[in-house]
Design brief:
The protein is built from 3 helices and 2 strands, in the order E-E-H-H-H. It has helices spanning 10-36, 49-70, 75-96; strands at residues 2-3, 8-9. Strands 1-2 form a two-stranded antiparallel ribbon. The longest helix has 27 residues, at 10-36. The N and C termini lie far apart (54 Å).
Length: 97
């Protein structure tokens, strides 16, 4: 079944909506780090803002993986870019130690 004029199935629209949701949490986590720092905590939380950001990153990765699994986006394009970026980050991290 399609949703509206965009020719997306309900499942496709739902996966994109989930990505929007997790990206919203990611933006909030980033803003909190910028405002308060990585190691600060919300008074109602035991986790640091760094940990909250890491959780948001993981949720975003899971949402993207669902898009890949469903064939909504091409895995090869995303995985190639991810592999290159991660390899560079590891090299920088190793050089910094």
């Amino acid at each position: 079944m399609m949703t509206g004029d965009n020719n997306l199935t309900f499942a496709q629209a739902n996966r994109l909506a989930m990505l929007i949701n997790v990206l919203g949490w990611m933006i909030r986590a980033i803003a909190d780090v910028l405002r308060h720092g990585y190691e600060s905590r919300n008074t109602a939380s035991i986790v640091t803002r760094r940990e909250t950001l890491e959780q948001s990153c993981n949720s975003t990765i899971r949402a993207i993986a669902e898009l890949i699994d469903a064939g909504d986006v091409r895995a090869d394009t995303l995985l190639d870019a991810c592999a290159q970026l991660c390899a560079k980050a590891v090299q920088r991290a190793q050089g910094a130690t």
